[in-house]
Amino acid sequence: MHQMNLKTLLLAIVVAEAATSAYAGGFSRGTADTEILYEDGNFNMRSSVTFVRPSQKYSKNGNPDLVGTDPYDTYVIPSFATKFKLTDSVSCAGTYTQPYGGSKKYDAPTYDGKLVEKFHIDEFGATCAVKFSVGKGNFYLLGGMFVEQLDYEREDFGGINLNLTGQDTGYRLGVAYDIPDIAFRAQLKYRSATSYGADGTLSVPGELVGVPLPKVDFAAKGYGNLPQNVELDLQSGIAPGWLAFASVQWMDWSVTKTLIVRSDISETIDQYNWRDGWTITGGIAHEFTKDLAGSVSLSWDQAVATGWDVTGETWTLAVGGSWKDKRGGELRGGLGVTYMASVEETKYGFNNSALDAGWAVSGNLGYAIKW
């Protein structure tokens, strides 16, 4: 198999994985595209956008008006990566994505008064890889830093609005070994946890606090934790024009116990008390021509809910494709279909909620080029 064809196959895998990770467990969304560090070229750029539409309806809720309604919003995950080859042995990449997020919009107030609740994390990262020639392949050491920016919004019944922003930093480490001639790569990656004391404003209609003003703003602060994770990726050519790949990821979701918001007049606590999450993916990529390749994968994500919320088990089937154009770039796209298992709360008595089984559909489109 020729080297050029291998690169087309590998990019097809990246696309399928983007569609798979778009609806993983907990608050997971995108993943920083550090795979660009393994690409040939002195200067490489890759960008993509993934659209996700989940749909799952309440079968039980503390507010009967919400039974039969779907609280989930469509969301978009951007990704951008650029790589610079500094020497024959050292390359560095800058990445941007949204690794975490959540968005719900209710047709009627929840038992605790919520109408809209959403947040997302913007991650800006820099990662470098040092390559050593070992045996028939190459050994890599990876390391880098990232900055996360949190934006959180909540609208409550009665015209109450909460807005919070925060920032934290973290790091990623990794090791890998590859044999390019057979498209073999084994990679172990670690991403550190982050923690937030996000600041913002709770806006309350004046009549609720006895003030003759349209709105009164109170200082607010939110507290929460996001997990560390470890991922093992494997891939290898298995026959001319064929490549198999698999990954196992552990995420420390048990650190996400509560989201606490305190202001001068109130305190609210969202209970999660999640358990750690596991995601397992396996798939195959095939080269149709020297310029066209495709892949298919199946992913399972363990439910992290322990009775305190409705974050359940998922199964995702994803397909991806990559086409090399005449200008030296590669157009890529993918589709994913996720089955969302039914899930039920058990800790709130008559206020317990439950969701029927549902589906999420995701689509990914991107472009890659190198010089």
Give keywords.
single chain; 371 residues; mainly beta; Porin; 14-stranded antiparallel beta barrel; three-stranded antiparallel β-sheet; 5% helix; disordered N terminus
What does this structure look like?
The chain has 371 residues and is mainly beta. It is 5% helix and 61% strand. A hairpin with a 2-residue loop joins strand 6 (114-134) and strand 7 (137-156). It is globular and about 75 Å long. The chain starts with a helix and ends with a strand.
CATH top level class name: Mainly Beta
The counted number of beta strands is 22
| Shape call | globular
Mean pLDDT: 91
Radius of gyration: 22 Å
Tell me about the largest β-sheet.
Answer: 14 strands, antiparallel, barrel
**Count of DSSP helices?**
1
How much of the sequence is in beta strands?
Answer: over 45%
Stretches where pLDDT falls below 50 for ≥5 residues? 1-5
- End-to-end separation in angstroms reads 23 Å
User: What is the CATH homologous superfamily assignment?
Assistant: Outer membrane protein transport protein (OMPP1/FadL/TodX)
Here the CATH topology equals: Porin
Number of domains: 1
List SSEs in N-to-C order.
Answer: HEEEEEEEEEEEEEEEEEEEEEE
Q: What share of residues is helical?
A: under 10%
In short:
Helices cover 5% and strands 61% of the residues. The protein is mainly beta and 371 residues long. It has a single domain (3-370), classed as Porin.
Topology:
Elements: H1 3-21, E1 43-55, E2 58-60, E3 75-85, E4 90-97, E5 101-105, E6 114-134, E7 137-156, E8 160-179, E9 184-191, E10 194-205, E11 215-226, E12 229-239, E13 242-251, E14 258-263, E15 267-271, E16 277-287, E17 292-301, E18 314-324, E19 330-340, E20 343-344, E21 354-355, E22 358-370
Antiparallel strand pairs: 1-3, 1-22, 2-21, 3-4, 4-6, 5-6, 6-7, 7-8, 8-9, 8-10, 9-12, 10-11, 11-14, 12-13, 13-16, 14-15, 16-17, 17-18, 18-19, 19-22, 20-21
